[in-house]
Amino acid sequence: MLERIHSPADVKRLSRAELVELAAELRRVIIQTVSRRAGHLAPNLGVVELTLALHRVFDSPRDKLIWDVGHQSYPHKLLTGRYERFDTLRSYGGIAGYPCRAESDHDPFGTCHGSTSISAALGFAVARDLEGQSHHVVAVIGDGALTGGLAFEGLNNVGEIGTRLIVILNDNEWSISPNVGAIARYLTKLTTSRVYRAFERDVYELLGKLPSLGRRVQRLAHRIKEGLANLVVPGVLFEELGLKYFGPIDGHDLAVLEETLSDLRRFEGPVLLHVVTKKGKGYAPAEQDAGTFHGVGTFDPETGATSKGGKKTYTQVFGEAAIEIAEKLDHVVAVTAAMTDNTGLKGFSKKFPHRFFDVGMAEEHGVTFSAGLAAAGMIPLTTIYSTFIQRAIDQIIHDVAVQDLHVVFCLDRGGLVGEDGAPQHGAFDITFMRMIPGLVVMAPKNGEELRDMLWTAVHHRGGPISVRYPRANIPEEALPAREPRLIPIGQSEQLRAGGDVALLALGTMVLPALQAAETLQSEGISATVVNARFASPLDERAILGLARSVGRLITVEENVPMGGFGSAVHELLDRHGLSTTPLFRIALPELFVPHGKRDELLQKVGLDAPGIARQALEWVRVSQRQYT
Ligand SMILES: Cc1ncc(C[n+]2csc(CCOP(=O)(O)OP(=O)(O)O)c2C)c(N)n1
């Protein structure tokens, strides 16, 4: 059927029976595609009926549908003219895993980071009012994303402005892991209230006795049920914020969804519809293990068996090191913002449940909470993806760094993340961490060094310290069986000596730089290679020494060039009157890198060994001609 669905208008024409068929087909296509391409599975399976209902009741792209996080937008993409390209999902040049304005008129607002939908939708609604237009604006936000403070800043403002806006709360009780926190408990209370349940049972029994009375009576009974449910279990929190609360309703009952949404279209002020869905709905492995199938690598669609990688990932090494450290040091605790599994902290959470804190999808709070912990003598391993800690730059500066607190920032997914693309690449953290006075910025060249850096970080006595590591396997087959070592702060490591050029590489770029040096050697250029380890403080003595002795420097980093490690070296040379030293910066390009496989992207931006060798060779030849 999807071949015949070119736009939401085609969905509107379908009969009830055809819709059921279409829902099954959407699930099949999503499961098959994600099994080959990897991606978000369980969140999408959970919103199939909701998406169908939205497209039947509303009129996209005139009406604006704004998905929070956007990882659940696959059914929406399939119904809005992207079925034929869906097999390119998340691949280079293919369709994105998130809503994307450049991709379709049906994606009015790009997303990836959570809790933005209500604020963005309010912007659309206010602009509509100012322009004298009349379309609808709908934000769909998950219960996980509702734990982010930004969502409440949005709700607060929605209640104040009071304009027509529909917020749909897609409540499946899961974030990536089971949702946590008081808001999650409150929502559970709304959906499991004994009064509501008993009442619902009575109504269903009544409905069961009514079929002979026909559809209209059933519909009426449904409506009475939903209306009364609202009376017996009002969503006080939302009502107090100024939104009329409706629900909870069954998010897999297409008829109820359509009917309720049609009613809400007529409502003049802001409303919140509480929809209860099952994450992973319709695919047993995902229903049983919504965490694994939230975002999943390739898997066997028949059995649900996920593919196992060979080498360990940096994330796994981090998780093991965190446990090892916590076993040795009582005051070490771990903080995550709704990413227990993804940041490798599951083992830690099991082993040290009282020293582990999932704060919800709330990075700002997570960092200030860590600052409080540190001020009171704890050593928090504050473990957040590079891209998501962008949310908390102020908290890092104001709450942690100004007070010189010993928070250990463990920044996973530093550098290109691959298929999640532009909004999720960790392209900026070297820049924004390095600019903060007193904050130590480290990046390891391999798994062994990550372990040593974490050990160093918890023993650091000089305030905040960070270590960033990539979404990648470690290069080693196995880590050496030895105790972790302290690395002197600001000390680099020279790995190779050569007189024509010095390659100063940071983190993930050290090994490709070493390989590039081999290529340079075969071209008659001898290169020093330094594992910089630190972007702040720099190993000033070593770098100034190389500037004087070798006289030609290349920095290599997986971060934007603006303000990054190369900039730090440039500023150092400048401070010491060496700004005329030829310096070339190899870094990510000055643009938002799209989605694709990480290795493919690194190759395209010239950050693999051949790319580094090629750029270095060209530049060294030019600079040899200019300066000799
Ligand atoms: C600011 C931010 N922090 C963390 C994440 C990572 N993340 C992606 S989806 C997700 C859980 C979302 O849960 P929910 O909103 O309930 O949607 P569901 O997947 O359950 O449908 C998290 C934590 C993110 N996208 N944005």
TrEMBL record:
Binding residues for Mg(2+): D143, N172
Cofactor(s), by name: Mg(2+); thiamine diphosphate
Cofactor comment text: Binds 1 Mg(2+) ion per subunit. Binds 1 thiamine pyrophosphate per subunit.
Binding annotation for thiamine diphosphate: H71, G144, A145, N172, Y283, E363
GO annotation, biological process: isopentenyl diphosphate biosynthetic process, methylerythritol 4-phosphate pathway; terpenoid biosynthetic process; thiamine biosynthetic process
Catalyzed reaction equations: D-glyceraldehyde 3-phosphate + pyruvate + H(+) = 1-deoxy-D-xylulose 5-phosphate + CO2
CDD domains: TPP_DXS (cd02007), TPP_PYR_DXS_TK_like (cd07033)
Coiled-coil region: none
GO CC, alphabetical: cytosol
E.C. no: 2.2.1.7
Single GO MF descriptor: thiamine pyrophosphate binding
Enzyme class: transferase
Keywords, ordered alphabetically: Isoprene biosynthesis, Magnesium, Metal-binding, Thiamine biosynthesis, Thiamine pyrophosphate, Transferase
UniProt pathway: Metabolic intermediate biosynthesis; 1-deoxy-D-xylulose 5-phosphate biosynthesis; 1-deoxy-D-xylulose 5-phosphate from D-glyceraldehyde 3-phosphate and pyruvate: step 1/1
Transketolase-like pyrimidine-binding domain boundaries: 312-476
Entries under PANTHER family matching the protein: 1-D-DEOXYXYLULOSE 5-PHOSPHATE SYNTHASE-RELATED (PTHR43322), 1-DEOXY-D-XYLULOSE-5-PHOSPHATE SYNTHASE, CHLOROPLASTIC (PTHR43322:SF5)
Stated family: Belongs to the transketolase family. DXPS subfamily.
Protein role: Catalyzes the acyloin condensation reaction between C atoms 2 and 3 of pyruvate and glyceraldehyde 3-phosphate to yield 1-deoxy-D-xylulose-5-phosphate (DXP).
Record's subunit section: Homodimer.
Protein name (Swiss-Prot/TrEMBL): 1-deoxy-D-xylulose-5-phosphate synthase
